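To fix ideas, we reproduce below a protein record of this kind.
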Amino acid sequence: MTTGQALLDKISKKQSPEQYRQEHWQGTFAEYLDIVKANPDVARTAYQRLYDMIMDEGTYPVEGRKDYVRYKFFDDPHNNGHDAIFGLTRPLMELVNVFKSAAMKYGTERRVLLLHGPVGSSKSTIARLLKRGAERYSRTDKGALYTFGWKEDDGSITWDPMNSEPLQLFPKDQRADVVVALNEGRSDDGYPIEIEGDVCPLSRWYFQDRMEKYDGDWSKVLDTIVVKRVFLSEQDRIGIGTFQPKDEKNQDSTELTGDINYRKIAEYGTESDPRAFNFDGEFNVANRGLIEFIEVLKLDVAFLYDLLGASQEHKIKPKKFAQTDIDTVIIGHTNEPEYRKLQSNEFMEALRDRTIKIDIPYVTVLNEEIKIYQKDYNNERVRGKHIAPHTLEVAAMWGLLTRLEQPKHHGLTLLQKMKLYNGKSLPGFTSENVKQLRKEARHEGLEGISPRYVQDKISNALVVNTEATSLNPFMVMNELEGGLKHHSLIGSEEEREHYRQLISMVKEEYTDIVKNEVQRAIAADEDALTRLCGNYIDNVKAYTQREKVKNKFTGEDEEPDERLMRSIEEKIDIPESRMDDFRREIMNYIGALAIDGKTFDYRTNERLQKALEMKLFEDQKDTIKLTSLVSNVVDADTQEKIDIVKSRLIRNYGYNEESATDVLQYVASIFARGDAKKDEG
């Protein structure tokens, strides 16, 4: 058997004809009523189906925010997170709350949902997720929905062009009894079955034609109706519409509500015969699902009447026909300049009144911004080139800083504000303070640099630095800075200079990060750290209990080594006025552990661990002679110690050989400059 045939056989085995038959079920109108009685959810409105689709995926809490919840749907679990939305927890909660309200028919189902935000803030991605989700959900048992068609004399079937709900075939004077019968015995958990709106003009014509043909015998008319399951599909133009405005000269409202089929006029004799009309406008197509308006506020004013009617009245007006009922979710998106035009245009007042605006800002939490870039730049996607630690972090840091407003709090820097937003703790700042910071910055995240710009520059850095086996933060920062002079969305030279200063700020922060990393790698001698910790604890114990310490070499009792204790405590900024409190806290902690039968481990106290590492680094720095890397004159003993440090960077921090060497040389040059300044002093 050939490889091709084996592959085809493998795929064929996965296909299930029985499943296909179930999914493409066709039956009578009476059989459909049985389906509705057994599973009332098939008769849900578009909003109800969309809300249930999101909730069906489940939710999970947000760490540190009891009032926040994340919806798994927006993590794009069915597509390996390809379109996952990072951050934006609050805007997504607002969006889902609107869907919930609309599903309950509290009024928001008669509004246009307007996603408002800067370019590249995920507005289109959210709309795409909803459209793809609707397609997928309609193929599940929970998301099933049905439409109908008319049997012709030749055995063919003319399907309703707008995929209308079969229950709309019931005459209005009979609907109350039908609804009572279908809802009878149901629990109060789900949505009550309601029959709203009428079928489209074509099905209305067929219905009247059959009633005339069978002399008003409704049962015979029903025999000519076929019900089938329908799957929403943007590609097949079923239940999902997308409209993008063109230039004003080429805008035509028939794109939204359908147009006359002139070739069929000769066959049917008149423009007002629904059989000579194509019900294929985006609103017609979007019935039972949703429609996305790209850059909705660029629509010509003439289009707004269709939009307003579709949202408020759930009706559209095809040319030559009466108003036609539709059931669809209308989602538009726009940017800040276009929205400002809407606010200042008195002709748009009706649209403003029927719009629910949901701000979709840029991400303002560092860890979430990093995830955006990790999605595209990781070991699976970027092959043959190692991405050094902190490369994506510095890019995300800079992008984030461009979006944050200067804090009004005295003494708080922009960098510190970014860290607070990222969940870091700073002395004197509580979670309530952070909430207040966000309230004060009402426009935050709606301006600044787009993730797209940062992604473009990371891509450039990967392509340009062909000889390097590793992409490092400086390569990316150089690209970010170099591209600023050509960035078309930067309004002024003052803004451009501000962004350059932020790059300098990020470089300083990166320097602190890698210095600390190298320090920890040098001080990562577990035995030496344990010995240093034991020595410190012995002295602290003696100090707090007013005892003496036995010298391990001489065996004599001595006063606690104040110099040793302070040299460690100063590394984490414990002032003399606080040293007694800090030492008592340590001893109380050790005592509490002992009561529980546990042994103290310095690794459980982050501050103490950092202090011990910095102290050990200081003690070992000179023996390793890291600064000799700068002069390229390294003796064998020093090289051996440097190689140990390098291996720790590779093993513990994710560096490769090239990036570890680069970082060591960079940090060595910093220490060399520091030593030179000391010598000059």
Summary: Residues 521-680 form one domain. Residues 675-681 have pLDDT under 50 and may be disordered. The longest strand covers residues 65-71.
